[in-house]
Amino acid sequence: MGLQFFLGLGLALLLNREFPLRRWVQALVFLPWAVPAFLSGLTWSWLLNPVIGILPHWMTALHLISEPYNILSDPQLALYGPVIANVWFGIPFFAITLLAALQSIPKDLYEAASMDGASSWQQFRRVTLPFLAPMIAITVMLRTIWIANFADLIVVMTDGGPAGSTSILSSYIFTTAYRKLDFGYASAMAVFLLILMTCYALVLLRIRHQMLK
After folding, report:
1. Could you say which residues of the chain have pLDDT below 70?
2. What's residue 163's pLDDT?
3. ∠ CA 174-176-180 to the nearest 5 degrees?
């Protein structure tokens, strides 16, 4: 999630500036968020397949792996597939929301800071971050909750395998309920996940409330 946030923040800062073809770049950046998670998982599964995909061959050329093969079949590397797909899918969310927050910051504050001799880093630290902090708290909270429930990517790409190496709580709940038909145990785990996410959300909302004071 941290990788999604920092890449999304970097893209938001970039898109907040005027440059040629800005709207085209903005459309490309936001495209992954418009693609359903099911299709994202399917696309990345194909890309990681050495028969029809290019990524294993690039990884071999970069000496990351010894020969082209599907890392989704390797228990030690399989989890990287859904993680990469999830990062690609989540970056636009941070870029969209943080860009909207950046555009709401009054330009006068930057002008005043510049007249006082503040550097670009000082303007970012003293002006941009305080205004972004409440939005950052909300976006991090929402994205963390969604990541905790991204069973769709896991099921589509690896189905929890190989040997359960990519199984997370949400995908295990899905498998328990709809493959093993043990709805009681799956419901109990789902309630536990709900309580856990509720506690997490309350903590972040409390932090956000303190930021707004």
Report:
1. 211-213
2. 78
3. 125
Q: Residue with structure tokens 């770049």?
A: 25
Q: What is the pLDDT of residue 111?
A: 81
Altogether, the residues listed in the chain come to a count of 213
In this structure, are residues 144 and 200 in contact, taking their beta carbons and an 8 Å threshold? yes
Environment class of residue 172 by beta-carbon count within 10 Å: exposed (0-12), middle (13-18) or buried (19+)?
Answer: middle
pTM of the model as a whole: 0.83
Supply the DSSP symbol for 213.
Answer: -
Burial letters 26-56, b for 16+ CB under 10 A, else e: beebbebbeeebeebbbbbbebbbbeebebb
Q: Tell which residue, 74, 81, 197, has the closest CA to residue 147.
A: 197
Q: State how far the Cα of 40 lies from the Cα of 171, in Å rounded to an integer.
A: 17
